[in-house]
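Interim report, section 4.2 (structural modelling).
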Amino acid sequence: MVSEEVSKLVDSLIQKYDGHLISVLENIQLFCNYLPSDYLREVSKQLELPLRDVYGAATFYKTFYLNPRGKHICTVCLGTACHVRGGNFIIEEFERQLHIKRGKTTEDNNFTLETVNCMGACAVGPIVIVDGTYYSYFKTLEARKIIRTILKESEKVDITKDKRIFPVKVNCPKCYHSLMDNEYLIDGHPSVKVTISFLDKHGWYRLSCLYGVYNVESEYERPHGVVANYFCPHCHAEMLGTFLCPLCTTQMVSLVLTGGGSVHVCPMRGCKGHLLDV
Amino acid sequence: MPNIKIDGINIEAPKNWTVLDAAKFLGLEIPSLCYDPGLTAGGNCRLCIVEIRESGRSKIVSSCTYPVQEGLEVFTASKRVVNARKIIIELLVAQCPTSKTLQDLAAKMGVKKVRFMPKWDKCIYCGLCVRMCEEQMTGKAIGFTNRGYNLKITTPFDVTSEDCRRCGGCIYICPVCMARCEGTQPSEVLCGRCENSLQPTCLDIFDNYTCWMGLKGDCGTCITEKDGNNNDLREVKKNN
Ligand code: SF4
Ligand code: SF4
Ligand code: FES
Ligand code: FES
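Predicted structure of the assembly:
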């Protein structure tokens, strides 16, 4: 049977997006990283849409995934321009290195290999995107190097075997200054330093840079359930994003990832809502 | 009520009619594969195309989805339409050579050759089964998934659907599942033997069909079998 958590999340999303199927699916995917079947069934039940329509929409759009995706996404462009510049050799090299076929995910859920038909950057092709970083004039041999680097990085993170814990580097979305504090370590990694204000308090706040870990340190103790405003310590701009927290529907704080993409964290103390958008 | 002209015949058609309805009313034959009187029109197979001429221009539309409008001038069997239909049925046969319905239609339209690579698929994506399931069986168990080249008709997650009532309506209406043509092989995509050998004999003797039942030989009782060159098989046997 569907767990309560699933039906609660689906219900809150439907409320928020006025029952618009695509928005609901998009947000479920942001939260789960793919569209699990029990969520789709729940959406169909709550929206009173036949399951075949929900499933049809989920399979129609390429942005929706019905299978879990890896932590690291390698996208190889196979558009016309990149193809004539050797895109197919590049994808074959990736397939060899990762031992998976295109469109598949490695068994340890580490890598997903995808293809795309033109990124609009044909002039500097062939294009490969790994975890949001664009590589132009890609050479087949680089594939191995990139995969090695990623594997080495993720070896460093041995917090637990949790499949979704890895370090991120974030910047202020307004001034792009790095928010990483290399002197102050949390979990053995540089912490993310921001300024927060809540009630009548104003002070620093440090978060663990490990995605999926909720360890924080704070100048003032903040009680659970209190929402704070997050500011950049460099430009003092408030770092408010557009997403609403999938758990408590508070407006989330957006931080820009070095290399592209953004993370969204819930500013309510105690809420574990966070999203990764690469 | 809009006044329209189909193949030179004037007709006052009720507002909610489509061009296909009006043509059917007049007894004009338009091949309509994915149209069923009990279901909404899908406009998927494109076999029911007709030509519409207005102010010197002509366009091809699917008659099962085109509503009648005042002053419409419709041609159901102009050269352009017939040629376009032939290409469409050729494409459909190439998609599913094993469908008797398609082979019959192709034979009726006089298609001699299929110039496209046969796909030997099991579906032409006419959507009849989806509409049947939804509208007549209130099942909503099957639907279109994926898109483009990967389009497929299936139940959600490709597993047995809880919404399916096992009524078999989808199979009943499917032009591919229901009547199989066994006469096609990889070497010969076109069959049409059933349709081609049904030639009423009376035309050999009289100038008109003289069928008592008005069936133009559809029942097959007075039919002789013809060989490939349209010679009467009995005559051929007698002569040998
Ligand atoms: S058998 Fe199932 S899928 Fe087919 S029409 Fe009936 S309810 Fe629909
Ligand atoms: S399964 Fe049959 S009825 Fe359904 S879309 Fe395909 S050809 Fe048409
Ligand atoms: S073809 Fe690869 S970017 Fe256009
Ligand atoms: S019957 Fe009109 S498109 Fe198929």
